From TrEMBL:
PANTHER family membership: PROPHAGE SIDE TAIL FIBER PROTEIN HOMOLOG STFQ-RELATED (PTHR35191:SF1)
Domain of life according to the entry: Bacteria
Protein name as it appears in the record: Putative phage tail fiber protein
Domain Phage tail fibre protein N-terminal: 1-149
Pfam families the record matches: Phage_tail_fib
Length: 503
């Protein structure tokens, strides 16, 4: 005769449940015992208080009401793979006081152990018909977690659905009307996708909802082949792109050796060299790398128009364009050359300080008289040094005074008067007797004239006696003074006057 397998509530179990209904308490299923029936099948009875032969016991893992029958309780236990070496023909559920509330006769099952060469976990389910399932406390042992196959299948489905959000999906649709496969739309839900086309910063939607830069209403710049993470904002019913590398800076805009990122890539290295940075190339009121600007550069769409406002050999950035300067540096040694235009009319510049430009067109006045020949030699006007002398200006130098140191030269028995300290070499000298008691009977005017001819000075004596002329060596007349004879010793005790003329 074929064996029948079944489960039933024991008398103790019925009494416990009935009592719980009357008192409003709950019955707790705590322990599941497994036995071999004493070596063979037997028929469990309602008055049975324990298994015939217990081979293993453990905490009940799961108690639930059956989905198809609300009067049935499903009581489950998982026998771990590490336990085995026995046959199962009976198992029963016990409460916290050790009372067996329900028992089951099951098909003979061998639980292997590792030494048998096979091992497995074994899930046992005890189904009991209970008149009032609300009187049963549904409990799970928190130390043991297991799942049914249906739960695992559902979990697998849920996980696969979630994993699809972590896979970089290539965007569908167009560059500005993107379509993506999404699980749901809740606030903060994020998705990473690969752009399939450039949107060039135009207004863009994802699944019909607008896409913006973080916290703005501006569309981001999407580039084909690059991955972007977006998240859904429920309040605005839109998507925001996750903050990432953005910008239109290029290597030439960033200091040399410094790293930066833009719309195209990350970890880029700048090439901008500021070693030649000078204040004349920086807008007034702006400081770059500690250099304060002095240039007043106007805003213009024609960057080339500003080349003449930037020092020659220097560069500056105007409206994002690199401009090479061609403005002469009105400073230093070239200043005089820049102050005179050509060989005709002179040009007077209102020049800037060394290396400084105020943004205006250089001012100048044309005047032919602004010339080195019209400026005294050794003097400068607005940086132009003069070359004019008394002679170049058509004049002569004159000096006059008194000779008081008449000396006698015994080598030629001649009296000489000496003058020094003149600022020029005299070309004509007039000496005359200044008065006093005339010691010679002749009426002497006492005038001597000396004029340079060839390499000699011809000295002429003019007086009433008509004395003639004679020669004096040129060494007697020199730059800064002269030494000339007075002829008559009679007049050595009286002053002589002189007038020297030269250039």
């Amino acid at each position: 005769m074929a064996e029948k397998f079944y489960s039933l509530l024991t008398n103790i179990g019925k009494a416990k449940i009935a009592n719980s209904i009357g008192l409003g308490t709950k019955v707790n299923f705590m322990i599941m015992k497994v036995g071999d029936g004493g070596g063979s099948y037997y028929e469990p009875t309602e008055d049975q208080a324990d298994l015939k032969n217990t081979t293993w016991q453990g905490n009940i893992n799961h108690v639930e009401i059956d989905n198809d029958n609300p009067s049935w309780l499903n009581i489950q236990v998982m026998i771990p793979s590490s336990v085995g070496g026995f046959t199962i023909r009976e198992y029963g559920a016990f409460d916290e006081e050790g009372n067996m509330l329900g028992i089951c006769k099951c098909a003979e099952t061998y639980k292997p152990k590792i030494e048998d060469g096979s091992t497995k976990e074994l899930l046992l389910n005890l189904t009991l018909a209970v008149t009032n399932t609300e009187s049963v406390n549904l409990k799970i042992d928190p130390t043991i977690i297991f799942a049914k196959k249906s739960e695992i299948d559902q979990l697998r489905t849920d996980i696969n659905a979630q994993l699809s959000d972590f896979v970089y999906q290539t965007a569908g649709g167009t560059s500005t009307s993107i379509t993506l496969t999404m699980q749901t739309l809740v606030n903060g839900y994020f998705k990473t996708f690969i752009a399939s086309a450039n949107n060039n910063g135009a207004a863009t939607t994802i699944n019909g909802k607008k896409l913006y830069k973080p916290g703005t209403t501006t569309a981001p710049n999407l580039i084909a082949g690059k991955a972007y993470t977006v998240w859904y904002n429920q309040a605005g019913d839109c998507f925001f792109i996750k903050a990432s590398a953005e910008g239109d800076a290029i290597a030439a805009n960033v200091l040399a050796g410094k790293k930066f990122s833009n719309d195209n890539d990350t970890g880029l290295v700048g090439t901008l060299d500021l070693s030649n940075l000078v204040s004349g190339n920086i807008k007034s009121g702006v400081s770059i790398n500690g250099v304060s600007g002095k240039a007043s550069v106007v805003d213009t769409s024609d960057a080339n128009a500003l080349a003449g406002q930037i020092l020659n050999g220097q560069t500056a950035y105007v409206n994002g364009n690199k401009v090479a300067g061609n403005m002469p540096n009105h400073s230093g040694a070239d200043s005089p050359a820049n102050s005179i235009a050509g060989t005709g009319a002179g040009r007077i510049y209102v020049r800037p300080q060394a290396g400084y430009y105020d943004g205006s067109v250089a001012s100048y006045v044309d005047d032919g008289n602004y010339n080195p020949a019209n400026i005294v030699s050794g003097k400068s006007i607005l940086g132009l040094w003069g070359s004019a002398t008394v002679a170049s200006l058509g004049g002569v130098k004159i000096a006059s005074g008194t000779i008081t140191n008449i000396q006698y030269n015994s080598s030629n028995s001649q009296y000489y008067g000496t003058i020094s300290g003149l600022s020029f070499t005299p070309s004509i000298i007039i000496m005359y007797y200044a008065g006093g008691i005339i010691q010679y009977p002749d009426a002497m005017i006492g005038v001597f004239c000396s004029q340079f001819v060839g390499n000699k000075y011809t000295v002429t004596k003019a007086n009433a006696s008509g004395y003639g002329s004679y020669l004096v060596d040129s060494t007697n007349i020199y730059n800064g003074g002269f030494k000339l004879p007075t002829f008559w010793g009679y007049y050595t005790n009286y002053p002589w006057q002189y007038i020297a003329i030269g250039n």
